[in-house]
Amino acid sequence: MPIHWLGSAQGARMLTFYLLDLRKVNVTTTRFWERAPAVRREAGAAERVVVGERPTHAERAVQAGPHSERLLAIENVSLEYRSRERIVRATQDVSFDVYGADRFVLLGPSGCGKSTLLKAIAGFIEPVSGSISLAGEPVRGPGADRVVVFQEFDQLPPWKTVAENVAFPLRAARKLSRAEARERALHYLDKVGLTAFADAYPHTLSGGMKQRVAIARALAMQPRVLLMDEPFAALDALTRRKMQEELLRLWDDARFTLLFVTHSIEEALVVGNRILLLSPHPGRVRAEVNSHAYSHASMGGVDFRESVARIHRLLFDTDTEANHEAGKEASR
Ligand code: ADP
Ligand code: MG
């Protein structure tokens, strides 16, 4: 979905907003599946398969450090786009939990509803059924505790310098003073290696550098959950790998909670510690995979390649029996 810039001049200053294009989204509270329980059972027949050893809560606490309580709870979430002509069901009965310091990946083919799920968690779309809660509180709209980094390179207002871009939401949402906001902006720009470009304008940066600015801006907000929607998909392969490594280094440093969307199986295995596999349109949960054992170093190895093949089967094999077998095989 495109991001639209809405700009308006007010006095000498420009007030800027950028919003998701929600004009086509007609949120509804009709609980379609409640009226058709038989269809629900049939349509939701895909079994949930947990592949790989699932860390116990205690193990997760050791891996993640002291902040590993359940942060996000997504329960039976169905999402739809409604227009006068038709209804598009984007996801159906999707459930998962994200714990503190997880690097949780939503993986599935294009059109399976990953972005829609992320938008719902960000609070831009309301589920037609099911619930989303953050730290025990229902999500009722957008908030500074959830920040999204998108794929597009045009997330940065072009009339602001790099540092101003990072500082702006800190001033607006976190209510920091100009000096405090700049200080924090420079701190996070340093983390992504862009100190030298603090006073540059976005059009002078490469795509990868613009994404670094977007990541610095998001981290500077210190959200409870960082939401990333295919943030590296438009980058060349080498830059993409570098950005993945950098993101993992940043995570090592700050142990933030990440919800990362991708359609690349390899990227999911490298970036995530847990992966939720979603079926093609409309997205339903196919399986959950534990992937904390993988890193860039494991890419190309036999084990890694086998995991890619298994995940591919789990994603695209529509026969649930075969899927179940694939799940059992993968967990050996
Ligand atoms: P993904 O991010 O996994 O590629 P999306 O969440 O973007 O998938 O889309 C899920 C489904 O919802 C797709 O079938 C897509 O065509 C549809 N969709 C996405 N945005 C809109 C919209 N604004 N209006 C109507 N349908 C939409
Ligand atoms: Mg998408």
UniProtKB/TrEMBL annotation:
It holds the Pfam family ABC_tran. Keywords: ATP-binding, Cell inner membrane, Cell membrane, Membrane, Nucleotide-binding, Transport. Residues 72-305 form the ABC transporter domain. GO terms for molecular function: ATP binding. The keyword Glycoprotein does not apply. Coiled coil: none annotated. The keyword Transcription regulation does not apply. Belongs to the ABC transporter superfamily. This is Vitamin B12 import ATP-binding protein BtuD. InterPro entries: AAA+_ATPase, ABC_transporter-like_ATP-bd, ABC_transporter-like_CS, ABC_transporter_ATP-bind, P-loop_NTPase.
